[in-house]
Amino acid sequence: APRMEIMFEGVGRRDFSYEFTFIPKSVQESIVVEEIIYAFKFHMHPEYVDENAKSMRFPSTFDILYMYANGPNNFLNKISTCFLTKMDVEYGADRFTAYEPIKGKRGFGPPPQKTKLSLSFSEMEILTKKRISQGF
Q1: What DSSP string describes 3-61?
Q2: Exposed, middle or buried, 43 (CB in 10 Å: 0-12/13-18/19+)?
Q3: What is the DSSP secondary structure assignment for residue 135, as one 8-state letter?
């Protein structure tokens, strides 16, 4: 009789990707988009504990929640604490177009009319049956 053998090698960490498109309609909205991009870029990277020793602190972690009205949407799976592992920013659409130059948080320049932000997160823990039974 034919047989099949399988070797279990383990379960990996779950990954989650999100994509956001920003089309600011005012100077204030352009500055908010700039701040959002900067915040994710800043928090995804480590920092030196001591410049001379070259040891580093872990990057910031993220707790992602799916919300509905004023609370969590328990119909969707929970996500455990994550690291931001990849971030891509695409400025403009098929053809780059910008608004009139303004002073942003980090300098002077023309903000793009469209910005696409792609984020990839990876959970810190490998989930077990116990965590799955808790909604993860």
Answers
A1: ------------EEEEEEEE---SHHHHHHHHHHHHHHHHHTS-EEEETTTTEEEPPP-
A2: middle
A3: T
**Residue that has been written with the tokens 């990057």 in this structure:** 59
d(CA 25, CA 22) in angstroms, rounded, equals: 9
pTM of the model: 0.82
Cα 119 to chain centroid, rounded: 4
Number of other residues whose CB lies within 10 A of the CB of residue 20: 13
Residue among 91, 89, 85, 73 nearest 44 (CA): 85
pLDDT tens column, 17-69: 999 999 999 989 999 999 999 999 999 999 988 877 778 899 999 999 999 99
Cα(61)–Cα(6) distance, rounded to whole angstroms?
A: 35
Q: Hey, is 109 helix, strand or coil?
A: strand
